[in-house]
Design brief:
single chain; 370 residues; mainly alpha; two-stranded antiparallel sheet; 17 helices; 2 strands
């Protein structure tokens, strides 16, 4: 028994380690999307057109996976629609639109207010209590955001850009919640790769209506984009966005949520903001001031505290967890010793009649010994 428990504990630790590794890969992959997309936007592509290229290209890559798991359309239509609208179309559209107005690192840092927004949903919509540590995390995140946007300097950042980034944060809440749907259903859980594939297809349909790619300047993709003074083929940047920053990022991200939990995966995913800010600094030359760097760190700390302190599900009622007491078998009472041993069991025992005590063997056979 102890050996079996030890093997199970080892498997759990191994699974958790794999989940953390997947979450780190997802954070790095997602974090590299902005530094590749912004040069394309500056080269002349509309932000929504870049989003459409990203999602449509990834959907094309994942099309064989969608066909393999086509049963999900019948079994989980709401999940696929929600994932496509929020986790794919919503997050990407708001984020890329924000990139056209504010720096990459700032857009991501605002987007990662999502952990605090989850707690706001729990407290004010579900009306469940929130711990003091969770409230502290929200306060730190908002205070850090104030440093990032440098509210004391007035118009340092575009207010519209900040609102767009906040919209991405709201949609990211849906990403973490929907990625965990059905993870406790065992064999009946929806396949994560199928959910991603159909989410990308739904996102492509939605973004086609919104972005209207038929009006896109396709010639930009045949030219070059400026990467902080370095000329890079536009198609190479687009390939990175589609394959690494979308397909690899979504696959590893959803799998990490399934192996860990939305809370733990969300905390690790906050590293995306750090990765994106560092890459933007190195690759794009977007230098941030000291207060902005400190504010970004405070935002991440606040998000970490808020996620870690998320309230657990309510415990089942006390009567539901009481131990089950096994029913005791009914033991018949021993018959009283007869007044006249010679008349026991209604028969005449020669030994008893003669005053000689019966042997132990005889008592055992007659049922007289307990």
């Amino acid at each position: 028994m102890q050996a079996a428990q030890g093997i199970q504990g080892t498997d759990n630790n191994r699974g958790r380690g794999v989940g953390l590794g997947l979450a780190l890969v997802a954070a790095v992959a997602f974090g590299g999307s902005g530094v590749a997309a912004k040069p394309l936007i500056e080269a002349g592509l509309d932000p929504l057109h870049v989003v459409w290229l990203r999602v449509a290209g990834a959907a094309l890559v994942m099309l064989p996976v969608a066909w393999r798991h086509r049963g999900l359309v019948r079994n989980r239509p709401a999940l696929l629609a929600g994932f496509g609208l929020l986790a794919v179309a919503g997050v990407q559209a708001f984020y890329f639109a924000a990139l056209s107005r504010i720096p990459v690192g700032v857009a991501l840092l605002v987007e990662y207010l999502a952990p605090a927004l989850v707690l706001g949903w729990v407290r004010f919509v579900q009306r469940r209590p929130v711990t003091r540590a969770a409230a502290l995390g929200v306060v730190l995140a908002v205070g850090g955001l104030a440093c990032v946007v440098e509210v004391w300097s007035g118009l340092s950042f575009d207010a519209v850009g900040l609102l767009l980034a906040l919209g991405a944060a709201c949609c990211q809440v849906g990403y973490f919640v929907l990625s965990d749907q059905g993870s406790d259903a065992g064999d009946d859980a929806p396949d994560p790769l199928g959910v991603i594939a159909y989410g990308l297809l739904v996102g492509t349909v939605v973004l086609t209506v919104v972005a209207r790619p038929w009006g896109m300047d396709w010639s930009v993709l045949t030219g070059h984009a400026d990467l902080d003074g370095t000329s890079v083929p536009a198609w190479l940047l687009l390939g990175w966005i589609v394959l690494v920053a979308t397909v690899v990022a979504y696959v590893t991200g959803v799998l990490s949520v399934r192996r860990l939990s939305p809370q733990v995966a969300g905390v690790v995913a906050c590293l995306e903001a750090v990765v994106a800010t560092a890459l933007a600094w190195i690759v794009l030359g977007e230098h941030l001031s000291a207060p902005q760097i400190v504010g970004g760190a405070v935002v991440l700390v606040g998000a970490f505290i808020a996620q870690s302190a998320a309230p657990r599900e309510a415990a089942p009622p006390a009567e539901a967890v009481l131990p089950v007491v096994p029913e005791q078998p009914v033991v018949p009472e021993e018959p009283a010793e007869p007044e006249h041993p010679a008349e026991h069991d209604g028969s005449t025992d020669p030994s008893a009649a003669g005053g000689v005590p019966a042997s132990d063997t005889e008592l055992s056979r007659s049922g007289g010994a307990s």
